[in-house]
Structures are given as C-alpha cells and as structure tokens.
Please model this.
Amino acid sequence: MRYLVTGGAGFIGSNTVDELVRRGHSVVVLDDLSAGKEANLAGVADKIEFIRGSITDPDAVQKVCRGVDYVLHLAARTSVPRSVKEPLETNRINVDGTLNVLVAARDAKVRRVVFAASSSAYGETPTLPKVETMPPAPISPYGISKLVGELYLRVFGQVYGVENVSLRYFNVFGPRQDPGSPYSGVLSRFCAALLEGEQPVVFGDGEQSRDFTHIENAVNANLLACEAPNASGLVFNVGTGGRYTLNHTLRLLEKISGKRANPRYDPPREGDIRDSQADIGLARTILGYEPRVGFEEGLRRTWEWYYATHRSEAAVQRT
Ligand code: UD2
Model:
C-alpha cells in the first residue's frame, strides 16, 4: 500500500512514517519543514519519497496524492497560544490546507483520509471524561480550526464519497517532540528545562490536567484508522483514559530524572482548557485501539530520549 503522510517530518508524522516503513509500505512525505525536520526522517531517508512543499499549495498536494491509497493528514500549525496570537495563519494552514488535501484526495480517489484532529475541539465540558457525543465547543482559534477540519472530512464523505476518519489526539508526547519553541508541548518543555538546569515554567497553578498520550499509542491509532471497517465518517478520541496534573507530572519527572524541578509559576495562558481526559470506548470498539504505553512508562522513555539526545548534542558541540 502507498501512504501519503502530510507533516511527515514532524513529531507525530515521522514516528508514523517509521512504523509504516517497518511494515513494508511505500511512503511519500509532504512537509514544508516549517516545524518538521529532515533529521527526523534520517533513519528511513533512502526508503521513502520526501517532497518539500506545503499543504497550502493546491498543486503540490494534487501531485503527491497521485497513486496514493491512504492519506494521513498530520500537517498543521499546532499550539493553542500561537493560534491566539495568529488566528489567520492558523486558519490558513489548518482549514485551507485541510481543504486542499481533501480535494486532492477526492480527485486521486484514495481509499481513505485520516485526519489529526484535537481534543481541543471539546473546550471546557461540564463532565469528564470527554466523549465523542458531547457537543464540541472550542475555546481557541486552534480548537476551531481542528473542528472545522473534522467537519470538512465528514462532508467530503457525504458529498463526494471520500472515506474519512478523524482522530482527536489528547496531548501526544514522546521522542522527537521539539522543545525549541515557547509553543512546544509542555512535557518537552519540562524535560528540556531540567536538562538545561533551568526552571520549568508552569502557566497557572499547575493543577490543570491532561490525558498525556505517548506517541506509540497515537501511531498505533493512525494505522488502525486507515483500515478499520465501519470507521469512515466518524470521530474518535485517542488518549489513555487517564489524566495527570502538571504538578504531579513534575514530581514524577523529578523521580525519574533525579533532578529538582523548582518550577516558576506564571499567569495562566489564554485559550487554555482546565481539564482534559478521553473516553476511549469508541476507539476500542470500532478501531480495536488499546493504549500500549501508559503515562509513567511513556514519561520515563521520553526523559531517557531527551537525556540521550542532549548528551550527544553536547558531545557534538565539544568537538
Ligand atoms: C492542545 C490540545 C492537544 C493538541 C495540542 C497541539 C487540549 C486539551 N489539548 O494542547 O490535544 O492538539 O493543543 O498544540 O486542548 N504549559 C505550561 N508550561 C509550558 C507549556 C505549557 O505550564 O512551558 C501548560 C499550558 O498552559 C497548558 C498545559 O501546560 O495548561 C498543556 O499545554 P500544551 O501546550 O502542552 O498543550 P495543550 O493542552 O494546549
């Protein structure tokens, strides 16, 4: 089978590409390297086709879709606070870009499109865990852009017969998540701060909670979503079903790393959701999804990866 992975040089994308290659599939990656890095694909570079281009370029998307069986549409402008700062740019990439991908997928008659949706579509819900039957009510431009993507997928199924699945990822973390920007995922920021001997910054009181989901679980969900029967047209939560506060997470990281965190508490971020936890019943039933890596184990593996990467980068700098 031939897979197109948009955003395939990014964090979730490159981990997904690795697994596709491991399973012997043919892979084409479309990535403009605005957030992704070619280095993320170094281990599979000679086994895949890499096209540098943007999902906002309809011609580029049309070209890469030719001959493709499955599209994993993972390219996006992530980050809630960045979307608060740059709503137009977030919409241009996440909404217009997704529409380009869908039009090209329709024209190329692909078997299915799988879309990286987001738990941010829920906004603040009165009860936890969040279940797909709850009405979506995003509270950030990013959340809106991801919800609109889902709606477009569903409509492309109804109007043009394009098979589609949306996966609402819940705070994915793990190796290759880039800690290098203020908009990076919190666990990558915490690990980097501890390694640099800096104070991790907590926005708010640290009692907000997330269903932190290790990358291996997200990759597994991506692959299941391509082929699961009876899944087309549906939206699925992809999480672990648990939730962890930032304060608890920092204590765990202290235990794992043997370092003192000594966090700094700053005012809360605009557009932030207080609590997030997935009901994964639907994904279990229809996709056959089961989280394989629990939070603590995932955090330990992630710390070890950042630690090893930090050491080898420091060694390169010394030479
Ligand atoms: C949202 C989505 C997530 C994914 C992601 C992509 C929710 C619940 N989750 O993640 O599924 O789509 O967007 O970007 O909407 N924080 C700190 N210190 C830092 C960085 C962050 O305290 O250095 C806090 C932040 O204020 C928030 C929490 O950590 O309360 C998680 O932030 P994040 O940016 O890692 O992820 P989040 O929840 O915005």
Observations:
- Residues 2-173+214-238 form a domain with the Rossmann fold fold (CATH 3.40.50.720).
- The mean pLDDT is 97.
- Residues 78-80, 118-120, 169-171, 185-186, 189, 201-203, 208, 210, 246, 269, 272-273, 276 surround UD2 (CB under 6 Å).
- DSSP finds ten helices and 13 strands in the chain.
